[in-house]
Task: structure prediction
Amino acid sequence: MRQDLHDLIAAFARFGATEDGGVCRLAGTAEDRAARELFAGEIGRRGLRLDVDGIGNMFATAMLDQASCDAVLAGSHLDSQPTGGRYDGVYGVLAALLAAEAIAARAAAQPGAARRNLVVVNWTNEEGARFQPSLTGSSVYAGVQTLQSALSLTDGDGSTLGDALGAIGYRGAGAPALTPRHYVELHIEQGIRLQDSATEIGIVAGAWAARKISVVFEGEASHTGPMPMSRRRDALRAAARSIEILYDEVDQGAHASAARISVYPNSPNVVASRVQVWFEIRHEDDNVTATIADRFLHRIDAAIAPLGVSARIAIDEKRSTAALDAEGVKLAQRVAGDLGFTSVVMKTVAGHDALALQKRVPATLIFVPSRDGLSHNAREFTDPVALEKGLAVLTEMLWRLVTAP
Ligand SMILES: [Zn+2]
Result:
């Protein structure tokens, strides 16, 4: 029984705890700072060195081989969605911390065995709940987003990520001066594939495509009472029609959502003049994703024209399908098998820091089951035994990576 893991998860769940047992810990808030401070304390207690880079990523280094300039990275994120659970992200960071502690002890007992150093990472703003887009810290580290553009991301109240990080004291000087050779992330699945197939470990080979389109509908404000129906230019009605069209277009196994809406002026007595909706389409095939998006955008133009409402695209983010490191998949399969666990190679529908990291360094993503696939929900739950199996796989995988010739 790894009570240390369960105690750590419970300790971090206090920061941003919600009444229903979940967690609301948005990036760059006081709750985020409290979780970071505890993490920094846990890093220090284990004799690891803490570095913080310019976008607030936290790096805890275990120097296993002073002569080596190489490092294996492992981590995830401590931020959450507004309706977050206790495991998403946090589990991967804390498991990596405990794995590093165990590996440091093993390396000390076997002088010369470790040939690379080990760095545990908490990536900033993985969730993209307060600042969009998501995967901010990992994307900056991977070099696919500039530090300057990331710092100027703005939340709904007009605060920048740079100011928010400054306010909580997490705009640091830089990442450790080590060359990353591999990244490993342990995460709850947030789907039902492992539960349905009664499999203990999921090994992610790649990711679905995602298209995130935010559309602004422009109509005209008027009184909701006397204005004749035929003369109204109701932006909210156009948005509602468009949302239904999206779900109508979702076939061929795609997933889609319209999960955020902003209405102006948002008064019960004013026909909405401007509405913004955030749409998402996901599929494992890039072409299917693009086709659905094209059909959707084409259909809404025609559908809302009779309402006297126009639509324009405010954000159009295309995430292509991606493959994770093939050698890492094989190594994770071997490790799971050697430890006596069942495993399956699968794809991730959700985005993860490992996908951003893969653009700079070979990356591996490992899943453990989440009960009923429930995530971004206070009732998110992973069985303690499943959490421990994931930790065992992560630890052994990291050991093999730091000791590999
Ligand atoms: Zn996550």
Residues 77, 88-89, 126, 187 surround zinc ion (CB under 6 Å).
